[in-house]
Design goal:
By secondary structure, the protein is α+β, with helices and mostly antiparallel strands. It has eleven helices and 20 strands. The strands form four sheets. Strands 6-5-4-10-9-8-7 form a seven-stranded antiparallel β-sheet, sandwiched between helices. A seven-stranded antiparallel β-sheet has the order 13-12-11-17-16-15-14, with helices on both faces. The chain has a three-stranded antiparallel β-sheet with strand order 1-2-3. β16 and β17 form a beta hairpin.
């Protein structure tokens, strides 16, 4: 729709410039808006009208196209997850998107636009039943809600945002800019700064609160199901088998309040996210008490957080890590490899041994001189970083060899 609007607006401006100068500006703008909306809606309608999908006993087939026809076949055994998104405009008409994600990379899935919300839920249930080899009962039209694991109230999300590090930095930076402009007597700069800083802060708060509004996390037979969103609503399922690692974030103020955020590495979600309120998210818990976070962690990686990481970076790492070296620790137990770092915002990352793809010991020129090395635990791209940075070189090699043995053993038993 945006490209259609831009095209009509450009054409209208061109025509006005070529001889329609007596037409009022508001008329030209009205023509551009109405024309752009009409063209965009027509394009969307044609795309929807020429899209067909067929679900048989072995696969789901999606066919679309007006001049050029495309047909995409998705075998049930390759379907990883099926999510429902309700963008704002579609939600107003009771419509939703069905997002089918498959094994095979970032572009392996497809999206069905638009179905009624009831039809989207019934289709998701059918696809998940077929994908997991379950008997499908067509008389049951609703989703399996599952057991409630966690929820985050809008008030808690708002308070957590107001005391988060990036919000505090934005406030302090904005206040500093405004004070400097007043001292310099730049009233125009001051007013412009008020608008810019205010818009920035509202965007930080609004985006997080609106996106995570009404957040709930349920445990279902297909995985953990997230539902969130005020204006645009999303129902996203994270299969247990696709979780490659987890990361617990504890900002400074949050630690005093007993709060944390939980992110997950999910296979196929490397490029997820963005500004779209319905985009796939790697945030499993936007904010939660420690007890709730621990319960979810035990569900995903049982026993992995039972032992504290006990290998610390040596004090001679201070030339390359003046402050952070004190807070860098790694360790492992029978379930996974753990790395912890950070003081202002403490982050604890855990990767199950059977999800480790490879292990590398990296040492630069300065590291060789100081006897330091970094252990890199390779996993799919995502928010989890379980590297052991600036460890003693011999210790790093021992940690890497031990992790390779643990990963090899875990993969055999997986």
């Amino acid at each position: 729709m945006l490209w259609a609007f831009a095209g009509v607006a450009s054409l209208t401006g061109s025509l006005l410039g070529d001889g329609w100068g007596n037409v009022p500006t508001w008329v030209a703008l009205l023509v551009a808006v109405v024309g752009g909306l009409a063209l965009g809606e027509a394009a969307g309608f044609l795309q929807w009208y020429f899209t067909r999908y067929v679900i048989d006993t072995a696969e789901v087939r999606v066919e679309r196209g007006i001049l050029t026809k495309t047909s995409r076949r998705m075998p049930f055994e390759r379907i990883q997850s099926v999510d429902i998104a309700e963008p704002l405009l579609a939600r107003a008409f009771g419509l939703a998107e069905l997002r089918i994600d498959m094994a095979g990379g970032d572009d392996a899935g497809t999206t069905l636009r638009f179905l009624t919300l009831e039809e989207a839920r019934a289709t998701r249930r059918l696809l998940l039943d077929r994908a997991h080899g379950r008997e499908h009962d067509a008389s049951v039209r609703h989703d399996v809600q599952g057991d409630l694991v966690a929820e985050a109230s809008p008030a808690q999300v708002l308070l957590g945002t107001l005391v988060s590090l990036d919000f505090v930095i934005a406030v302090l930076g904005g206040v500093g800019l405004l004070v400097a402009s007043l001292v310099a007597g730049q009233v125009v700069v001051f007013l412009g700064g008020v608008v810019a800083v205010g818009t920035w802060l509202i965007q930080i708060v609004g985006q997080r609160v609106i996106r995570q509004w009404g957040f709930t996390l349920h445990r279902t037979p297909d995985g953990l199901r997230i539902e969130r969103g005020l204006l645009s609503r999303t129902s996203q399922t994270i299969p247990f088998a696709r979780v490659q690692g987890v990361a617990v974030h504890e900002p400074f103020v949050w630690r005093r309040l007993g709060w944390s955020r939980l992110d997950v590495d999910v296979a196929g979600y490397a490029k997820a996210g963005g500004d779209d309120a319905t985009a796939t998210s790697s945030t499993l818990l936007p904010i939660a008490d420690r007890e709730v976070t621990a319960r979810v962690l035990e569900t995903l990686v049982p026993g992995a957080f039972s032992a504290e990481p006990d290998v610390q970076a040596p004090s001679r790492a201070w030339p390359v890590d003046p402050v952070a070296w004190r807070f860098r620790r790694v360790g492992s137990n029978e379930q996974g490899f753990t790395a912890r770092e950070g003081w202002v915002e403490r982050r604890t990352s855990v990767v199950p041994h059977h999800k480790v793809q490879s292990v590398e010991v990296r040492q630069g020129p300065l590291g060789r001189r100081l006897g330091l090395a970094t252990v890199e635990i390779h996993t799919p791209d995502g928010p989890v970083d379980a590297d052991g940075k600036n460890l003693d070189a011999e210790t790093a090699r021992s940690v890497a060899l031990a992790e390779l043995d643990l990963a090899r053993t875990a993969r055999r038993g997986a």
